[in-house]
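Q: what sequence does this backbone want?
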């Protein structure tokens, strides 16, 4: 991280400097300072997906969940397939007691996203169990479950969701 900070000092593009400094501070375990650098970098480069994503993670680490939610949402808008922001946002909503919002997020663009992970699919199944709608399995879920080895994980995810709801 020290080498990255030294490189940032030699850079001439301010948003690059600040985003690198923010990433280094986040990696060093200083999310508050990271947020300051990310904020400066994003003022000049607001559509930077990775910067928004890392800002959300830093905000989450200091307990600023409202900011984390907004930054994850911005990261999704800026480039939904570049990070796992959609999954992290859905988990954040579910953890805050709003599994319906988590389900809405995890299903956003699910059918058209070629990069959708099985982790997202299983989390969607879990959320369907939490909100009491196990019959609403989407086409991406059904496609993802073509392999029999994934059926047990899907059943376990649904059971975990139903258990969490109770």
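A:
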């Amino acid at each position: 991280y020290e080498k990255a900070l030294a490189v940032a000092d030699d850079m001439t593009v301010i948003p690059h400097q600040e985003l690198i400094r923010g990433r280094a501070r986040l990696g060093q375990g200083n999310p508050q300072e990271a947020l300051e650098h990310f904020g400066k970098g994003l003022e000049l480069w607001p559509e930077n997906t990775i910067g928004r994503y890392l800002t959300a993670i830093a905000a989450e680490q200091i307990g600023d969940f409202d900011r984390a939610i907004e930054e994850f949402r911005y990261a999704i808008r800026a480039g939904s397939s570049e990070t796992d922001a959609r999954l992290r946002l859905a988990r954040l909503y579910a953890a805050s007691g709003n599994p319906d919002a988590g389900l809405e997020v995890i299903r956003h663009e699910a059918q058209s996203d070629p990069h959708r992970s099985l982790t997202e699919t299983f989390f969607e199944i879990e959320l369907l169990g939490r909100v009491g709608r196990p019959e609403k399995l989407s086409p991406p879920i059904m496609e993802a479950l073509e392999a029999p080895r994934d059926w047990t994980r899907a059943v376990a995810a649904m059971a975990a969701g139903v258990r969490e709801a109770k």
